[in-house]
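Extended Data, panel c. Modelled sequence:
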Amino acid sequence: QVQLVESGGGLVQTGGSLRLSCAASGRTVSMLYMGWLRQVPGKEREFVARIVWSGGSTNYADSVKGRFAISRDNAKNTVYLQMNSLKPEDTAVYYCAADLRSGTYWGQGTQVTVFS
C-alpha cells in the first residue's frame, strides 16, 4: 500500500499561483505513475497531470497545458503541481494519485479556490 498526503491548497486571486505537494509513504518503490486529478461538486473527477515515476515523462490535460507543471523528487517521494495563471474554473478539490500494479491510491484532497 501507499499513503499520500497533500498540502498547498488555498485561496488565490485570478492570475495567481499555487504549488501543491503530495508526499508518498509505504510501498513507494512500486509506484509507476503519480498524478493529480480534480473534482468539483456534481461532476466527475477529471485528469489534470501525471508523471512517470521512474522516467519523468509528463502528460497534461489540455485545459492546463502551459499553465501547470508537474514534477517529482524521487528522494523525497514527493510530487508537485505548480499552478500558474490560475482561473476561476480551476477551482476544485485536487487529489493526488499513485498508480501501482496492485491498484490506484488516493490522497485526501486539498481545496483550491480561485476568485476573480
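The chain has a mean pLDDT of 96. This feature is highlighted in the accompanying rendering.
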